[in-house]
Write a structure and sequence with these properties.
Elements (H helix, E strand, L loop, with lengths): L1 H6 L11 H9 L4 H12 L4 H12 L4 H23 L5 H15 L9 H9 L6 H9 L1 H6 L2 H8 L3 H23 L15 H4 L3 H10 L3 H18 L3 H15 L3 H4 L5 H13 L4 H12 L8 H10 L1 H21 L7 H14 L1 H7 L9 H26 L16 H9 L1 H16 L3 H7 L14 H11 L9 H16 L3 H14 L5 H10 L8 H17 L3 H6 L17
Length: 583
Amino acid sequence: GPGRAAMYAGLQELGVANGEDLKETLTNCTEPLKAIEQFQTENGVLLPSLQSALPFLDLHGTPRLEFHQSVFDELREKLLERVSAIALEGKVEERYKKLEDLLEKSFSLVKMPSIQPVVMCVMKHLPKVPEKKLKLVMADKDLYKACAVEVKRQIWQDNQALFGDEVSPLLKQYILEKENILFSNDISVLHNFFSPSPKTRRQGEVVQKLTQMIGKNVKLYDMVLQFLRTLFLRTRNVHYCTLRAELLMSLHDLEISEICTVDPCHKFTWCLDACIREKFVDNKRARELQGFLDGVKKGQEQVLGDLSMILCDPFAINTLALSTIRHLQDLVGQDTLPRESPDLLLLLRMLSLGQGAWDMIDSQVFKEPKMEAELITKFLPMLMSFVVDDHTFNVDQKLPSEEKGPIPYPSTIPEAFTKFLQENRIACEIGLYYVLHITKQRNKNAFLRLLPALVETFSDLAFSDIFLHLLTGNLTLLGDEFALEEFCTSLFDGFFLTACSRKENVHRHVLRLLLHLHHKVAPAKLESLQKALEPTKQSGEAVKELYNQLTEKLELRKPSPAEVTETPSMELPLPTVPTPASR
């Protein structure tokens, strides 16, 4: 059959007899047994010492095939070891010459399953497999599959489309993994999207596979970066920026200098990586990062496109934004204005560059975006005044109240604040991080004061997955407030439900939050939310699935009618507890 033919493919070209030859010999001979014996002698293992041993094996009923197979396997192992040794010994030209000769001799047997590993091993050790052989491998699906990655790299570097086909499913998987984390049903303030350290993230399957595929090949590395840029432009998906940084740092971990030394972003990314690990940009590293930005030379501005992509990575933005909020609090304590703090200005400069990545790569105009003066002179001082309001309110609560009565928490926000969040991307990003900050501090008053400003934000940033993922996590700290009608109305009706019908992702995040906190929500409110959040015909599978999970949980909570009637009322006077000063 064809299977047997494949087994012996290429033997004839080498003048080695195969099954067909035996068939022919037997068809045309008068004494078959003699013919077989002669064929065995001519084509058997030619070792004088074996001639006497073979009949002995026959007596023990060991088939010749089994014997030949074990000799063959043994020889193949020796040959594989020898090939690997040749690849390391002697002068470079000589060893490759030996391997090339071996490849020339053995390649015609590449289809024989028993010999294939040897041929593949020879190719694997050749830094440059002859073009003709690569073409033959490429044209044959099974051979291509069986190739070592070292050989595939040689094929890929001149076949971008083929390489793209290999990389594409990995990139899809990467984006999916990121989205699964953002929409995960586990909501926690301790374990969120940004918890894993950079080192841990780089151990991820996709980064490791891409690193392995690239090896030390600069051409393949450049191709992957090109894919990432193109996809980022096409989709605006910032996770491609994360992968761009992770890939470079993964090669850095392996000390692959062939690539790291030619990527102009290497040292910048390495320094930023250390900041991301600490979730803070300290002064020493700030100076270093600034040095890289100031050091971009005339004629090399294109590197800004790459740097902006590194800074657009959500992990970088997260670190810069958290550092900005911390700086603003420090400035309040020092009575210093934002424009007087070089560290703060540098953070803003990097945020700007990161947020401008898409526009820069799209327009191919490589210069740093202009910072709006008002961001520094008006917006940041306004944020600082909110910090001051909190201090004042807290001090006020502690003062003995004379006739004046309690001072209410300021409930209005300056119109300018809302306008900044709508019109200025950097202001919006920092404003949102300030809201996350006060939520994490369980500062309900400040949260309810600023929440209305989030309904309309620059390019709907307040309804982006990363913000909502972090907000839902932080809201678990305000769990007890969900029993209050007023709090729920502000949060759900005033914020979430304004976008649910037009943005599927918001619908998902609200359902995630309720799955986690439904037992804290006032029953009447829960019922109206259940109605408001019912999926429509247009809703995707994820929303329907979450809604069903929520419905099941609520069904389990409903007491049966019998229980309701029999529970005696607990009308005991509650002990009076002094209420702690509200935070």
